[in-house]
Amino acid sequence: MTHPTANTPAPSPCDLIIKADVVVTQDDARRILTDAGVAIKDGLVLDIGSYASMETGYCPAQRLDLSGKMLMPGLVNGHTHLPMTLLRGVADDLPLMEWLESHIWPVEAHLTDELITIGAQIGCAEFIRTGCTSFLNGYFHEHLTGNAVADCGLRAVLGEGFFSFPSPMFKTAEDCWQTLRGLNRQFETHSRVRTAITPHAAFTVMPEELIASFELAEELDIPWQIHLAESPMETAVCLDKYGKRPIELLHHHGLLTKRTTLHHCVDVTDEEIEILADSGVNVVHNPVSNLKLCSGISPVQKMLDAGVMVGLGTDGASSNNQLNMFRDMGLAALVGKVRHEDASAVNAQSALDMATRNSAHCLGWPELGRIEKGCPADMIALDLAYPNLMPVFNYVSHAVYGATGMEVCMTMVGGEVLYLYGDFKTIDINLLRTNALQASDWVHSVAER
């Protein structure tokens, strides 16, 4: 490096400079930079531009050469139930209510803290390996998932799930309030873990308890998330119980606001889409789970056209079998075309937006899902040497239609590398494999009772 002259300012110090063949920024202009560099300091993107300009302008403590790689924002999973990796493959090929009531809930009733922790750790490892850096979760004993996330370096928004009927965790919905307050206190100063209020669904939580939980979300100033309009069967139950469709029910009680994130929204009408758009809610599309449970295909393009903020999620590994956002991203684009009978519907850029910027809004963390000055340095790299990514005509197309997730060779959160070329930096993957085998024996024994 040349020495500065009187007219040339000295390079500024930074923690790391990354070199990459291409950077898909996902900034407001959706810039794609080639021969690019990213400077990182204190866990944030300090600058981005040509690699030559980064080398001239900054003096890094470290360098990371990702030549031959495509750098992009870490994917953001807008809806999952992380510890349900324990139930991957336990009850396949069943409709939603039979799957839940006859197979999933009975096993969950016997889960221990140790098992939930193992399930969360497995999910974290899968996210790191397949390029997901942050997620919105809903499950039980969420402090255990929070501890796993804190240890492995990911970001998460955690929601303790509850019902109106007795569950293994809470006899009533109100019994959950103290737990929710405690979870919020535990992580209120954590830089990577936040909380949300998480009633299960409009057909499993009574309206007065939905309202009370929303008031708690407002008091704590955190997101409020719920499964909604997931299937025609859910709609039928809501009509029978309350005389209103799910979206109509929440709208009637003033629960559709910018604080609200709705998961699924499969069985929705054009009029309801207008309500969603006018209220400013967030919607998370879960294409694989919806297909596997035969719940239907959400009218995503109609929602996007109406101005609804639509993110993307995997749902849990028991109704998806993977926590691979690349698979859901590609399928979101494909089934969107079939749903709308239009090959241009849910195009590649829309799908990538859903998996990054849009899902970040669903988490209430809008600075995620982009590589931009001042934003967290959460990013992943795809190895362009994989045959399925050759040749390159369109980088966004490759990310959505060509990539499988297995091309991820680097995962970073807040400037810290969590995975690099097969090496998990924050997880003992061999110990996790051993624990997973032991957990599978337990699940198998319970499922067969």
Radius of gyration: 22 Å
Oligomeric state: single chain
Helix content: 25-40%
Which residue ranges are poorly predicted, with pLDDT under 50 across at least 5 consecutive positions?
Answer: none
Q: What is the first-to-last residue Cα distance? A: 69 Å
Number of domains: 2
Largest sheet: 8 strands, mixed
CATH class group of the largest domain: Alpha Beta
Number of strands: 16
Instruction: Give me the CATH superfamily of the largest domain.
Output: Metal-dependent hydrolases
Indicate the proportion of strand residues.
15-25%
The second-level CATH architecture of the largest domain is: Alpha-Beta Barrel
Give, in spatial order, the strands making up the sheet with the most strands.
3-2-1-4-13-14-15-16
CATH topology of the largest domain: TIM Barrel
Shape type: globular
Enzyme class: hydrolase
Cofactor: Zn(2+)
Binding site for Zn(2+): 79, 81, 227, 315
Protein name: 5-methylthioadenosine/S-adenosylhomocysteine deaminase
Topology (elements, then pairings):
Elements: E1 12-24, E2 32-41, E3 44-50, H1 51-57, E4 58-73, E5 75-80, H2 96-108, H3 113-129, E6 132-139, H4 142-152, E7 155-162, H5 175-187, E8 193-199, H6 207-220, E9 224-228, H7 232-242, H8 246-252, E10 260-264, H9 270-279, E11 282-285, H10 287-292, H11 300-306, E12 309-312, H12 325-340, H13 348-362, E13 379-383, H14 395-402, E14 408-413, E15 416-420, E16 423-424, H15 429-447
Parallel strand pairs: 1-4, 5-6, 6-7, 7-8, 9-10, 10-11, 11-12
Antiparallel strand pairs: 1-2, 2-3, 4-13, 13-14, 14-15, 15-16
Helix pairs in contact: 3-4, 3-15, 12-13, 12-14, 13-14
